[in-house]
Design goal:
The chain has about 650 residues and is an alpha/beta fold. A six-stranded mixed β-sheet has the order 5-6-7-3-8-9, sandwiched between helices. The protein has a six-stranded mixed β-sheet with strand order 14-15-16-12-17-18, sandwiched between helices. The chain has 21 helices and 18 strands. Helix 3 packs antiparallel against helix 4 and helix 5 packs antiparallel against helix 6. Helices cover about 45% and strands about 20% of the residues.
Length: about 650
């Protein structure tokens, strides 16, 4: 046990934020902490590390356990360089290496008797350094900094010259290098592009350290966690498995709780009705017996009220039909100090849903603004189709007047819509569908939280009744349940979509096509993010079979069954396709681990270890080849 909390309570107003929350974290556990915005996740993390005192309950940490916390607000010395900050995470290891070096120098001048004592001390330090990879400090720092998007040109740059997002990434790098026994990670993938997020996923999935992770990235949660804590109404429920498994188990648990609760309420209603009808009649004794039974039921046998998390009923209005071609882009180019992109050509047709991907700084928002003619481009043409009405959601939420109250901020600019179809009652109803109701709808936009402002901006977009929506990071600040609602709304939208998002789960659920900004041009993908990932793996000589849990994509396109396929003799014993796919996934993971091992400088210096790893890699590659052949046979003949 690394950390436990029992019956935590915390009040900031009359209603508690935490109301009896309890949890346990053990060594090596990879835990997701999920819950709607405002439920108290950050409050809980601050309480676990002692930054905030509970109003009730207690937090217990194992003696000697090292706990690291990734805070959303960072503190740093602006004059310190990126490399120096990274080194502070390994200060204890660096001191250990210095002590070993000093002992080695003392041994050279010591007497024979002293040398024996010093040699034992040196052997101990040497063993510790090897165990903790203390001879690879530079490699470890560069690996983590590079994985989080810091090239070597950033290493000597003062932290004060970094952007806010870069500073947050540096604090994450420092925490990963520290390797505490337990990491508390509050939105670690914020400010990361998809490439860096993918690297972080791999790092955390392979980590032996325990961590408690808060994130709105469902794809990320699925790949790195194996336990889920749900924080709702101030209490914590524990579910085994990742986010996808949690959703399944939560639905099953809610169904059981609903049936139990409803049966108990029906029984209580019957008892109350009997008591009311017979309290003063001939069946007075029976009524008194039922009254006592009702008291026992209410005091000791209360079924828990199902703790459901409401999902807003987001919906976009019906829109007018436009032409078959919504947007045609030909040879588009844009430069600032240097070329950003050039030769960009694609065509979006009515009803398609396109996602735009690219690394941070690749020009995604610039491309959108060029398509909207908000920014002049250097070359090429952008032609919207006939009858196209564009609605734009910008990630900075400037599409709504921040000084207006919410109900006024979404008033359509089109007077025919505003006066005929969008009176105040209609606007309040629209806001409620996006999760803004009651007094919140009468507050000024600039006084709302980030998630609430995002919902108002989405409701404003729905009010415009545009048939071509261009969305720049629409899931920012939205919790998991609001993202699910937005996915459903966009999938039911009758118009056309072009959106930028780092949420790969969202891209998988919504998009039919992708535009990938890479090498100052675009690559058109027919499919979602899993399709793109599969194509990348094929390009790199690998073919992933399993993708996101519950959203698998076959490794290879299955061949149509021929008339003589049943007569073909099997080379391999009969096995289910799903079982073979599971073996392939395990084998691919093993191959990735071996490649990582072979990249370790320590292995390069150890000839027997190098030979053993190469031999094992060859065996695994051969096994993978046979599994692919078995998979193809099973897919065709089963």
């Amino acid at each position: 046990m690394l950390l436990s909390a029992k019956n935590l309570r915390k009040y900031f107003s009359a209603d508690p934020v935490l109301d009896g929350a309890s949890l346990e974290i053990r060594q090596g556990q990879h835990i997701a902490l999920v819950g709607p915005n405002g439920c108290g996740k950050t409050t809980l993390l601050n309480m676990l590390v002692g930054d905030l005192s509970p109003d009730g309950g207690e937090v217990t940490t194992a003696p000697g356990a090292r706990i690291g916390f990734l805070r959303q607000q960072v503190e740093f010395d602006p004059q310190q360089t990126v490399w120096q900050m990274a080194e502070t995470a390994l200060a204890a290891l660096i001191q250990l290496a210095e002590r070993a070096h000093q002992l080695a120098q003392r041994m050279a001048d010591a007497s024979t008797r002293e040398q024996q004592t010093l040699a034992r001390q040196y052997d101990y330090l040497h063993s510790e350094l090897e165990h903790r990879r203390g001879y690879q400090i530079e490699f470890k720092i560069r690996r983590v900094l590079g994985g989080l998007g810091f090239s070597q040109e950033f290493e000597q740059r003062p932290i004060g010259q970094l952007s806010g997002g870069q500073q947050n990434r540096l604090m994450l790098a420092r925490l990963l290098l520290e390797e505490p026994d337990l990491m508390l990670l509050d939105e670690p993938s914020n400010h990361l592009d998809i490439e860096s997020t993918t690297w972080l996923e791999q790092f955390l999935a392979e980590s032996r350290q325990a961590f408690l992770l808060v994130s709105h990235d469902r794809y990320f949660l699925d790949r790195v966690t194996n336990i889920t804590f749900e924080l709702v109404h101030g209490q914590i429920d524990t579910f085994p498995g990742n986010y996808t498994k949690y959703k399944e188990l939560k639905a099953e648990r809610l169904e059981v709780q609903r049936r139990t609760y409803e049966r108990q309420q029906e029984e209580k209603d019957k008892l109350k009705d009997f008591i009311r009808r017979h309290h003063h009649g001939q069946k007075h004794a029976q009524a008194e017996d039922r009254r006592r039974k009702l008291e026992r039921l209410e005091q000791t046998e209360q079924a828990p009220v199902p703790r459901e998390i409401p999902i807003p009923k987001m919906k976009f209005h019906d829109v007018d039909r436009c032409g078959d071609v919504v947007l045609r882009v030909d040879q588009l180019a844009k430069s600032f100090d240097e070329p950003l992109f050039s030769g960009v050509s694609f065509q979006i047709e009515r009803g398609q849903r396109w996602g735009l991907l690219g690394a941070n700084g690749s020009g995604k928002t610039t491309l959108l603004r060029c398509l909207l003619h908000q920014l002049p481009f250097d070359e090429g043409t952008v032609k919207p189709g006939t009858g196209v009405e564009v609605g734009y959601f910008d990630q900075h939420l400037q599409c709504v007047d921040s000084d207006s109250i919410s109900a006024e901020a979404i008033r359509p600019q089109d007077e025919s819509i505003a006066e005929v179809r969008m009176d105040e009652l209609a606007r309040r109803d629209l806001l409620a569908r996006f999760g803004i109701s009651g007094d919140t709808a009468l507050q000024r936009v600039n006084r709302l939280s980030g998630g609430q402002r995002n919902r108002v901006a989405l409701a404003n977009l729905a009010a415009q009744r545009s048939n071509f929506l261009i969305l720049d990071e629409p899931t920012n600040h939205l919790d998991l349940w609001a993202r699910e609602a937005l996915e459903q709304a966009l999938n039911q939208f009758a118009g056309t979509l072009l959106l930028v998002s780092h949420d790969r789960y969202f891209l998988n659920r919504v998009c039919t096509h992708l535009l990938v900004l890479e090498n100052r041009s675009v690559r058109v993908i027919e499919g979602n993010y899993d399709t793109y990932r599969m194509l990348l793996s094929k390009q790199n000589g690998q073919v992933p079979v399993t993708q996101l849990a519950g959203q698998g994509t076959p490794a290879k396109k299955r061949k149509p069954r021929s008339q003589n396929s049943e007569k073909r003799k099997r080379r391999f014993p009969y096995r289910k396709v799903a079982e073979i796919e599971s073996d392939i996934a395990t084998c691919e993971t093993k191959i990735e681990e071996l490649h990582f091992r072979l990249a370790d400088p320590a292995v390069h210096r150890d000839a027997p270890a190098m030979m053993a790893a190469k031999s094992e890699l060859a065996d695994e590659n051969e096994r993978l080849h046979q599994l692919y052949e078995h998979w193809e046979e099973a897919s065709e003949l089963n």
